[in-house]
Amino acid sequence: MTRPKSPVRLEWVDPAVCSTDYRLKIIGRLPFFKHLPPAAISKINNLFHDVDVPADERIYHEGDEAAYLHLVAMGKVKLVRNAESGREVLLDILHGGDYFGSFSTLSGRAHTETAIAQTDSCILRISSRDFDGILADHPDVTRKVLDAVSRRLTESQEIVKQLSAYTVEQRIASALMRLASKLGESRGEGVLIQLPFSRQDLAAMTGSTTETVSRVMSRFADEGWVKTGRKWVTILDMKKLEELISKPYR
After folding, report:
1. E-strand spans in the chain?
2. What is the pLDDT of residues 116-157, one digit of tens each?
3. Residue 126 CA to chain centroid, in angstroms?
């Protein structure tokens, strides 16, 4: 019996991805900069510095001084946090155009999570001092930054609520839906979550164990809701997962 061919594409980070044109495009799409004119974006671009980060390397650790704001140009980055139980919780997986990290200007002196390159990545970063200069030149950016921080906080609170109140099946279904919304690719038979993705990652996202994730994912597959392989998932029936999430819990 032959093994099904994996639909996952291996990513290779082309240095040209961090070219000036691409940098201007993704910086200009940030929620707190997208209202600025091209001349201002060009000036801001000069304040960002690019760093190539190999897969599995830490970009910063939880508790490190928050001196930079980071932007994924290419690749995938995962954000993790150590829970009180000692277990590592996977907060999010980011892709091109997503920003992460912080600095004292916005939210305190230390990072509240650890950032790790999920794949080989090209990361842009700007220092706290340079960002302060942007706020001085463009005061209206401050409000948009606060709006963005507020949205992130709301999203985090929703995830915390799910971890404490949802059943494990609902948590796993919700995590799959979030990943599909951010990283999914439409395929003829469903939505492929396109990244090196393991049961351990899904367990870390949902506060469960790999054994529990395997059991629930097997059930989802038997029901025809998902198809799984080594480090990939295709969602075949989004409606069924949505119905599961919306059921009263506990």
Report:
1. 49-53, 58-60, 67-74, 77-82, 88-94, 99-103, 114-117, 121-127, 184-187, 190-193, 226-229, 232-235
2. 999 899 999 999 889 989 999 999 998 888 888 777 777 777
3. 19
Asked which of 117, 137, 161 is the last residue of a domain, the reply is 161
Whether 77 maps to a domain, the answer reads: yes
> Can you tell me the distance from the alpha carbon of 93 to that of 215, in angstroms, rounded to the nearest whole number?
23
How many CB atoms neighbour CB 52 within 10 A?
Answer: 16
Domain boundary among 124, 144, 161: 161
Indicate the residue type of 110. Answer: A
Report yes or no on whether pTM surpasses 0.90. no
> Are 177 and 109 in a shared domain?
no
Q: Best-predicted range by mean pLDDT among 52-56, 110-114, 154-158, 196-200?
A: 52-56
Order of strands, sheet of 77-82, starting from the edge strand that comes earlier in the sequence = 58-60, 114-117, 77-82, 88-94
Decide if 4 is inside a domain: no
Domain around 102: 15-161
